[in-house]
């Protein structure tokens, strides 16, 4: 069917659909004519070729990054088991209290091994009590969490998402490239 005939048929059916008030037919016909226009474009234009190769490459890069990261996680888990020890140590580092560091340093310099009586304001005592309660809750919460496992699960989630996006992206675009290359070779070979 010629392109002009196809568009003429679509114009007639669009007019009829408008008169009948059937919007779904209008939208379907518009998308059909758009698809036909895109299909009728020269299949091997430079822009289309660049698009296909670019998106195939993006999908492949996503796959490579995700697979390398998964391999890195596996090596750290099973072979280089001490690679994440620093993360465990840093995670267990306590937080600082509510009193200014300068005040604590001044008190410790004044004491110099002697017992010193320190007077705190009522607000400072409440801050210390609140900090002790918060710190206890903090330690209990941290004891339940393994930072390395948490980090690995976060990385695995990101890697899996990249594979889920990258694999179909690569396979779809590379499949189109292969199909068009085969057709082109068949035409040239004939």
Any chance you could write out the topology, listing elements then pairs?
Blueprint: H1 3-20, H2 23-40, H3 46-78, H4 85-91, H5 101-111, H6 122-143, H7 147-189
Helix pairs in contact: 1-2, 3-7
What kind of sheet is the major sheet? none
DSSP strand (E) fraction? under 5%
Q: Could you name the ranges where pLDDT drops below 50 across 5 or more consecutive residues? A: 1-14
Q: Give the end-to-end Cα distance, rounded to a whole number of Å.
A: 24 Å
Q: Secondary-structure element sequence?
A: HHHHHHH
How many distinct helices?
7
Number of domains: 2
Q: What is the residue-mean pLDDT, rounded to a whole number?
A: 74
The computed structural class is mainly alpha
Number of strands: 0
**Any idea what the radius of gyration is?**
34 Å
Shape annotation: elongated
- Helical content class: over 70%
